[in-house]
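User: Sequence in, structure out. Go.
Assistant: Echoing your sequence, followed by the structure tokens.
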Amino acid sequence: MMIIVAGDVLVRAGKREEALALAGWFAEQSELEEGCISYRFYTSIADPNVFHIFEEWETAVALAAHFQTPHMAEFNAQLPNFLAGEPDVKEYEVLAIS
């Protein structure tokens, strides 16, 4: 069953450009993974320090494998340097596609 991961992350003031670079690198690496349909970061028009994440995975197994990759470990190691709060990220199962 297809899995969606979506949420918001608030980036510290003054760290936006560095966070954009990290997010871009991480999205590129993630999209190379087997089972990744898409992996995107978007920035809020209302607040450019709010990043929205949206991922599509073919299966829960593919998503679980994603959490074990070296680039995930690197991303998680760098992430505290940029966060202004706890990320609000949720996982969803896709029940139907029209």
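User: And one key feature?
Assistant: The first strand starts at residue 3 and ends at 10.
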